């Protein structure tokens, strides 16, 4: 019992021990138990000494012989009552502990819920306005496909969103999770319908950074779309739903729960439609149901049935645009893969509510044109007997075949050829791969545009990867970046030493023999070199290994695995960047070099000068004109000489290049807006 009492409460009750031989009067103690409210337990109260004496006297007078037994019984009665009270208190304590645990658990759950809500709020707040707008626009598409609104009302809603985008983003921010019926009611309530000024452009293409990328098309679509939307235009993209898509980069990916059919091979084919937002750009993914293997393959291109795959996608894209009630100003198609949209549009779709839409084709590469048997055109609903003619799709060399890229040129209202260094004349006469006669006939609708780069990611004045930022007006930070790069590479740390970087994607892009000669001669002048391949995965290459062994030097470093942070530091820390080519649509190395205050110099043999096909044609790009008057004709040795002998002139040249804007937002944007404007006026 002592163990129970002592273990149950932090104190012990003292009770008089009964001893029959004890002649002295036992003084009983008052026993009180306090409840939780500090009141005395009403179950019992130990008698006072006077009471006990009186009680004992009465008992003794009544039955003197029973006095010891009576006292013993009373004491044990008191003890049992105390025990009951202790057990009661112990029970109350256990209940209080349970209540405390429960309260603690509820508090933890509440804190977790608050944290999740804060994270959700932060995620919502992190969404830029373009993402919210595109969530809304894609919901409008879904409403059309479900039959909730007609195409006319959908068109009005889209104009409303385009015209009042800032207000719309704020108004609809908190209600995007509502059901379509509720959202539609809010849209109808939001009735301010001003006339829009920007263009509505729909890209029908096969690549887009960062979800799927193989060549220069991917960065071009994303870069140009960003630039256009920053200036108030509405741009959306339609892609095949490849199995290899990087869906982590897609915000709000959802499948539209509506049936959608497109024509192919003589009948209607079912498709699943997915929508989402990529970098603030609305994207629609088309997934064939019956022809499900078309876009579930390891590679994007290079299969015998590529024409079938991409003609299916092109036809499905047009069917989707019509069914969703879109009426874009421009359908922007790319390379041969979606060039078939041109003849499809004018022969099948123009009278299906698209009378105000025009077609623009962009060509990135004439090496692949897709030559097919003419009868295959019927797969997507075209009449080969009408199209297989010399002035339409018939190939200029192999007359028995249809040339799909040629058909895109013929049936497009404008054709933009992407080339940073070549003029229209040189492309038509030297680089057209058999399309010279076609380009000559249609030369008035040909435009040349340069590639660009993301000036917000690549900006030394606010680059988060640099130890110190800098501008053309204050170049102090560039010296800091050079020393940081030298330290990282284990090179002699001194800002006055000339550091040359060389960045490439594949070894096959580089003329290693020319590069070896350049490096061996320049290294005698105490020049430092850093070579890097922009890849996250190291690779083995015999020719590269041999090259590195031959140029082995304490001033030369090679990095076979370069991350984003290091690539930024190489641009910032280098005085010169060696370029495999000035026409660099993939990496845009020359453009980034100039932005970071490094001179782009072509890899060429000593004693030879780099020459482009230059016509001094007024139709060449501003980029090519600038490069041709600054760095294009300069070898590495000549650049080193000028740095040493005429540093003031060199520094001025570098600062001039830094202040030029060759991003997607500059000349590339201007050329496309000019083309869109011309299309609208047709």
Automatic annotation (TrEMBL):
<feature type="coiled-coil region">
    <location>
        <begin position="97"/>
        <end position="127"/>
    </location>
</feature>
<dbReference type="InterPro" id="IPR013534">
    <property type="entry name" value="Starch_synth_cat_dom"/>
</dbReference>
<feature type="domain" description="Starch synthase catalytic">
    <location>
        <begin position="200"/>
        <end position="437"/>
    </location>
</feature>
<dbReference type="GO" id="GO:0009011">
    <property type="term" value="F:alpha-1,4-glucan glucosyltransferase (ADP-glucose donor) activity"/>
</dbReference>
<comment type="pathway">
    <text>Glycan biosynthesis; starch biosynthesis.</text>
</comment>
<keyword id="KW-0808">Transferase</keyword>
<keyword id="KW-0328">Glycosyltransferase</keyword>
<dbReference type="Pfam" id="PF08323">
    <property type="entry name" value="Glyco_transf_5"/>
</dbReference>
<keyword id="KW-0175">Coiled coil</keyword>
<keyword id="KW-0750">Starch biosynthesis</keyword>
<protein>
    <recommendedName>
        <fullName>starch synthase</fullName>
        <ecNumber>2.4.1.21</ecNumber>
    </recommendedName>
</protein>
<dbReference type="GO" id="GO:0019252">
    <property type="term" value="P:starch biosynthetic process"/>
</dbReference>
